[in-house]
User: What shape does this take?
Amino acid sequence: MKRIVSLVPCITETLLARGLGDRIVGRTRYCPEVPGATEIGGVWDPSIDQIASLTPDLVLVDPEEQRPEDLAALEARLPVTRLTVRTIADALAFAGSPALPDAPPAPALPVIVPIWLRPLRLVGVGSYCDALLRASGFFNKITNEGYPGGPGDGDDLPALGDALDGACLLLPTEPWAFDEEDAARYTGTIPALRAIRVVDGRDLFWYGSRTPGALTRLRALHRALRGGGAA
Assistant: This one.
């Protein structure tokens, strides 16, 4: 039986959902609890020596989550598999459910999703979150790839200016911990927005076993925002 170390919370969650929890010998402090597994630090600061001491047969990482220097150190000592999930099809396949979801609801609603403040970082195209938004009936008003910043030196959302007009602003609870106070602040300072909602960040960024439920919840949010109701 393979001994697995997972350095990504959604990978750990999906392994547990697939009944592979007894193979996990190491996890990050941000991962779901795994009976008997050793905590080996965080996503961005794992203990390479501690991971090696667990003698894993497989270390699962996501290049978008881990620092390049940590990936290099791990690959120099241990068998590492890099998982790159950027589409809904890939996410469902990883979860063991390769069937594609139904077509997204229409009409599409414009959306902006920040993932960090000071400095401001936004969800761009080509990411898993972007694919999830499109499959849920939204279209991303940020057309740069990856996780771009705002214009100039602006480190908060009002710096986006006209891009915010008529957009739905989804504030994820992670990795930056946006909350209802933030939603109230932006409601007062960005009146041109169509709507503001605080969303569980795991639904937006955790792929795998969470993807089907996240699609259901985000499509319900789309319906509510399209109709002007609450969600």
The longest strand covers residues 168-172. The chain is about 30% helix and 15% strand. The radius of gyration is 19 Å. Residues 211-227 form the longest helix (17 residues).
